[in-house]
Amino acid sequence: MEKRKFDFQKDFIFGQTYERIIAGQLEKLLNMKLDHFNDNNLYDIMMEDLTTYEIKVDRNFKRYNTFFIEFQCNSKPSGINTSESDYYVLTDESLFYVMKTNLLKNLVKINNYAIRCCNNTSYGYIVPLDEIINICWFAGVVN
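The chain above was modelled as a monomer; its predicted structure follows.
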């Protein structure tokens, strides 16, 4: 499989697209409306009950059957290290997994996961799917 060339703008738009898709899925799942999208690193969306969600899509999931949990970008804390969301949502473009952010933070803290560098700027923990499933409270199909 050929390695994909990094394009920040394209990847940013791709991520925003999945934020919108998952926001719609959560509206149906929770039977509540989206309050707003957020443009900082604390969370991605807030629902009408003020619960916040961080949404991450992993394009390489199908290749490795693991999720890349970013913790640093451009030599600064990012991703799981800066999120203040109530819930973390991981998607592989086909399925999505919802878990409490504190459970994911604890999972990466107590385990010695491999760390991968992506595009010489971003670092993340490589977490196997089965360990994500063990802490998620919901898994669903993206549609």
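The two ends are 26 Å apart (CA to CA).
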